[in-house]
Design goal:
The protein has 183 residues and is of the alpha+beta class. It has 2 domains: 57 residues, no CATH class; 111 residues, Jelly Rolls. A 5-stranded antiparallel β-sheet has the order 1-2-10-5-8, with no helix packed on it. A hairpin with a 2-residue loop joins strand 6 and strand 7. Helix 4 packs across helix 5. The longest helix has 31 residues. It is globular.
């Protein structure tokens, strides 16, 4: 018995142009999944390094301040030079501003060295590895009516990528679809 595939999808993939687009999508999707696995492995490897600080433990050396204004949560984070930081996985999109410093950001798109003035929009599901070349200060702004920084962390970040799939089940469906097409 043949597999049941949506005829619209299978017909659209049949053209050369759409096959090229599908291949681009597949390459990007696989690259993103590979990056996520490597970041997770890198973070786990860091926990075995003597003197490595993880999450809240590092805040003494990397102070974080929390401010609230009219439904906005403003988080300011500072880091000394020569630090490697694995960011948390964001649940919501928000702007991030580099106010001070020189930082290399590593994402699935590659490495980018940035200095102020610089900002970008962090998409939901994003995670980065940072290297701070100098003293660094970032500011993020997120819409929120909550006024407790501890509970906000749980509302705004995922613990790991398995939680992302729970909120975005289409990611799991896309992966299944790709595996079916590759057979």
């Amino acid at each position: 018995m043949s597999k049941s595939i949506n005829p619209y999808i299978s017909n659209s993939i049949a053209t050369a142009a759409n096959t090229e687009e599908y291949n681009k999508f597949l390459t990007a999707f696989n690259k993103e999944q590979e990056f996520k696995a490597k970041v997770t492995a890198f973070e786990q490897a860091l926990t075995t390094v003597d003197g490595c600080k993880v999450q809240d433990e590092s805040y003494a050396a990397m102070p974080v301040s929390h401010r609230f204004a009219d439904g906005l949560y403003i988080r300011e984070w500072e880091s000394p030079p020569d630090q490697i930081v694995v960011t948390e996985i964001h649940k919501v999109s928000n702007p991030i501003f580099l106010m001070e410093g020189d930082v290399t950001l590593l994402t699935e798109a590659g490495a980018e060295r940035v200095t102020p003035p610089w900002y970008t929009i962090t998409s939901a599901g994003t995670r980065r590895i940072l290297y701070t070349h100098t003293k660094t200060k970032f500011v993020t702004v997120t819409r929120s009516d909550h006024l407790d920084a501890t509970s906000l962390r749980e509302k705004l970040t995922y613990g790991d990528y398995s939680e992302v799939i729970k909120d975005f089940p289409e990611i799991k469906q896309i992966a299944k679809f790709i595996k079916a097409l590759e057979k």
